[in-house]
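#onboarding

Welcome to the new folks! Below is a worked example of what a typical request in this channel looks like: someone posts a single protein sequence, and someone else replies with the predicted structure as tokens. Don't worry about understanding the tokens yet, we'll cover that in week two.

Example request:
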Amino acid sequence: MLTFEFPINAIALLGLLLGSGLIGFRLRRSQIAKIHKKLVKAENEMINSHAEILEIQKEYISLELKLRGIKDPVIAISNPTEAATQENLPGGALRKKMLMKDFTPTRHEGYNLIYDNLVKKEAGLNAAS
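Example response:
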């Protein structure tokens, strides 16, 4: 049977273990530093967003207090029946005459005029009902 002998140097083994341990700790420390930077950045963004929210709430409360100070927020509107009597509106007889009149289009007019006339007649019949 073949046997292989490997002489192990204790000092070289100890140096190798210490070197690999230091390299591992440094790599992990750099990873932790990157994670810490990201965490600080996220915390700063959260603080800024909360500050903006608080500022908006402060403005909202000030507007609410201003609105509470107004005693009559209702605006008076004129009576619609008075406004209708003041305007010159055409008589109802003329409107009825226009709706009852049968429309016969000329050659150059399109079908949309016939359709519009039919729609007006139906609207007049529905309004009269």
